[in-house]
Amino acid sequence: MQKLVDNESGKNIIEHCIEKLVQAELNFIPCIHFDSPIWMIDSVLQTQQPEIAIRIRCHDFSSPLEDIIAERISDKVMDKMNNKNFIILLDFYDSPINENRLLTSLKNFSGINAYKLVLLHTSCPENADWAAPNSFSLVSSRDDLKTYFKLQKKYPDLKYGDYTVRLKPSLEGANINYYNTYLKIFYSSTDDYYIGKSTLLENKGVETIKGVYQEIIDSDVYKSPDFSTGDKAIYDCAKGIIEISNHVKPIEYGINHHIELTGTQL
Questions:
Q1: For the chain, what percent of residues have pLDDT higher than 70?
Q2: Cα–Cα distance, 199 to 209 (Å, whole number)
Q3: Contact 233, 242 (CB under 8 A)
Q4: Which of 3, 47, 95, 231 is least enclosed by beta carbons within 10 angstroms?
Q5: Domain ranges across the chain
Q6: Using one digit for the tens of pLDDT, what is the confidence trace for 232-263?
Q7: What is 235-252 written as a DSSP string?
Q8: Which residues contact 234 (CB under 8 A, 6 or more apart)?
């Protein structure tokens, strides 16, 4: 990435963004990649922020490289500023769970004496392709959180970072036929991931999602309308109080419910 500098202030893009965040009095933690350009790393280190996160994309490489990466983090980042609290983010994204690999990574990076060690991982499906239309289906176990709790027994200070239920979507054509899509909501239970899915929108999808939401609130995994804003909206849709006709709202409701639920579990 090119080091862009504002001609008036003399600040580069990183310094400019952090300055604006501070001016807005936002509570934030700057995050850099372990392999970010040196100028970018130095720009973050020179700020007044007491905590800095370092993201390590473990899903992009094999564990034998981790010794080299840990050494780079110590030499290029942590040893430069001993007055900062560094948070190491071990990002496994949606990689298949391999407990031995997770333990190896935890062992490798716990040795660099970071302020916090955070596991980022998800077993939530990337999309709803496998869910049957006009139904509320169990699609995956929440092995991400289950694995974290298991690892926490050996690493009690390990923290958990959640991807919620909205992963990076695959690239699609710019001209998508709205009526050839489904309304869908990802709903988390304590142990599993579920998907509620309408019929095609051209086949009364707006009407059928109401019945799917009714199936959700009738299920054993539904919490209550008072549990979260998302759960209240699901209930209201099932009862015909509100109507869902776009893709954005179900995503919003599913994420809201998931964050509230995961917060109670941690």
A1: 94
A2: 8
A3: yes
A4: 3
A5: 17-121, 128-135+178-266
A6: 999 999 999 999 999 999 999 999 999 999 99
A7: HHHHTTSS---SSHHHHH
A8: 185, 187, 213, 216, 217, 222, 253, 257
